[in-house]
Amino acid sequence: MLGVVTAAAAGLLLLLLLLRDRLFPFLWADLGAFVALAGASLRCRRRLSRRPAVTLLEVFQEHARRQPRRPLLLFQDKRHTYGDVEQLSSRAARVFSQRLGLQPGQTVAVFLPNEPTYVWTWLALAKLGCAMACLNYNVRGQALLHALAAARATFVLASTELQDALEEVLPDLQRDGIKVFYLSSTSPTPGVEALLPAIETASDEPLPGHYRAGITASSKAIYIYTSGTTGLPKAAVITEQKLMMVANLGRICGLRATDHIYTTLPLYHSAGLLIGVGGCLEVGATCVLRAKFSASQFWDDCRRYNVTVIQYVGELMRYLCNTPKRDNDQKHRVRLAVGNGLRAEVWKEFLQRFGPISIWEFYGATEGNAGFINYTGKIGAVGRANAFLKSFAPFELIKYNVEQDEPIRDERGFCIRVRPGETGLLVIKITKNTPFYGYAGDSKKTEKKILRDVLVKGDAFFNSGDLLMMDHEKFVYFQDRVGDTFRWKGENVATTEVEATLAMVNFIREVNVYGVSVPGCEGKCGMAAIRLKPGMSFEGENLYAFTRETLPSYAAPRFVRIQEALEITGTFKQCKGNLVREGFDPDIIKDPLFFRDEKMKSYVPMNADIYAAIQEAKLNL
User: Fold this and answer.
1) Residue limits of the AMP-binding enzyme C-terminal domain (predicted)?
2) CB neighbours of 9 closer than 8 A, spacing ≥ 6?
């Protein structure tokens, strides 16, 4: 009898395991991801609840005490250990305090390229209880002045490499009482002091604790400017709590103390500074820093510095795949890649060419209050919407009217959830676990990112501005930015989908799809700016045939513009604003222009007659 019962119990257990694998195939992965996230959250809250608070700075200092000789930064031929950076940042903090008169709570802007100076300056400011505003080193003129005003920065610490940009606005800065200093040995600008000689001779003794006595979880630590493709930059507020949570992303993805993480992304952006450098400060790892991304030198650097983890954005991976193939493409020690924006076709090509690297794609905005992590390696997905994580960070995908640029609401005035397989606007509930801190100095733009009365009266959600789709297995996929999606012939056209399709054309190296206004037509008409592969020419008939086979008629671009280089931001986001404004007027655009001619079944050269016919509504689009 006992044997029968035992056999029945074993059979039942086997059946439950089989049903689990069939009905809940991702149960353990989902649970593991939740435990990792919840553990990181508890760790951060426990640290920050102490008095005085234990912030990322104190975590770094503990690593510096325990492992002073371990390299923190590898840059060109220089090696900076944890002990080196701890001492140098203390010297800098002392000079900033004594020579500049910095006080806790003040904001200091850094205008620096990717170099070790950026890191020890950040830590020096943190030791004084000052917030750091991370200026994009590509910003000039009024945009630069706007960025400083948004964060209410009273000091600028700059590099002599950016002398021209600085001197262009220096009279305005002096008028506004903003003091400027170079972090260099000498100054090429009259009236601007060079601080490096004083820093090199200053004491490296630890600073008094009173500078950070008032630091809490909600203290402002950093301002990072949205790298948006249009408009003036907005200064996203990064608190000590958010800084520590983002720095823990690397740990969640598997970053270890023994790793060397290769960061070619700009440090003025959250990915490079908070995830790359911040991740190293969190776990005690080494950051291999490069001034600027180089596709041709990328893998040579990985071999030279024994890189085990790389950071990416989607376009960076595509650039790597576009380099000439080498026999040693898979001869490296890289085991893990962490980043965002990787398209499925590039993802597959990257793995096939460079080997079985574990890719952890994530989704999140600098100013956002939550995000996703693709912890299963599902190609093309940005994450999974499992029940455990959703209880921690509630979110919804809601119906969105692209033409009117607003959510669709029901008769009660509430937003409508989309079904699996449908594209919807991602909104994330603002809660104690997922707060939204907004933008410095711009309450109107902060309020604009909050969507209220979404599901019930009085609730509040962060409006991501992104359109996502969740499939029946609860994998989540990025579709497009709200401003990039346009409506044509009564249909929504997702620019990223069209770009991914056109990227498969053999003569196209890069492509940027956008919508342009056409007189007398509702919505916007599709247009593509493309960069040709070296040595190849534009083939109008072949492109027409390809788009006819692969794209719905409403999504196929009506106009094509050939450019020698596509305009991008420092984090490889494509800029569309100028392209949209210039439209398809051959008198304005000097680049080669082509029109999709249905009669000729080809993309034919654009001329004044075709343009006039479109303007007069004599040519049917």
Assistant:
1) 497-573
2) none
Model confidence pTM above 0.90 = no
CA distances from 10 to 21, 22, 23, 25 (A): 17, 18, 20, 21
- Beta bridge partner(s), residue 529: 512, 561
Options 3.10.129.10, 3.30.365.10, 3.40.50.300, 2.30.38.10; CATH of 394-432+441-481: 2.30.38.10
Q: Once rounded to an integer, what is the mean pLDDT over residues 113-130?
A: 98
Per-residue pLDDT band for 576 (boundaries 50, 70, 90) equals: confident
Q: What is the pLDDT of residues 235-262, one digit of tens each?
A: 999 999 999 999 999 999 999 999 999 9
- Classified by CATH at the fold level, domain 39-373 comes out as Rossmann fold (3.40.50)
3-state class (DSSP) for residue 92: helix
Q: How confident is the model at residue 575 (pLDDT cuts 50, 70, 90)?
A: confident
The Cα 387–Cα 394 span in angstroms is 9
CB 580 within 8 A of CB 516: yes
Spatial separation of the C-alpha atoms in residues 245 and 256, rounded to whole Å: 16
DSSP H or E stretch at residue 392: helix 387-392
For 127-155, give the DSSP string.
HTT-EEEE--TT--HHHHHHHHHHHT--E
Query: Is residue 230 pLDDT above 70, yes or no?
Result: no
Residue ranges, comma separated, of all CATH 2.30.38.10 domains in the chain are 394-432+441-481
Distance CA 166, CA 154 (A): 15
- Judge whether 190 and 166 are in contact, CB under 8 Å: no
Strand-pairing partners, residue 373, are: 362
Q: What share of the chain is helix, strand, coil (3-state, %, to 5)?
A: 35, 25, 40
What the block records as the tokens of 145 is 């002045």
Looking at residue 20, its amino acid is R
CATH 3.40.50.12780 domain span(s) along the chain: 39-373
C-alpha–C-alpha distance, residues 398 and 400, integer Å = 6
Question: What topology is assigned to 486-615 in CATH?
Answer: GMP Synthetase; Chain A, domain 3 (3.30.300)
Write down the mean pLDDT value for the chain.
91
Would you call the peptide bond into 324 cis, given omega within 30 degrees of 0 as the criterion? no
pLDDT of 313 over the 60 cut: yes
CA distance linking residue 398 with residue 396, whole number of Å = 6
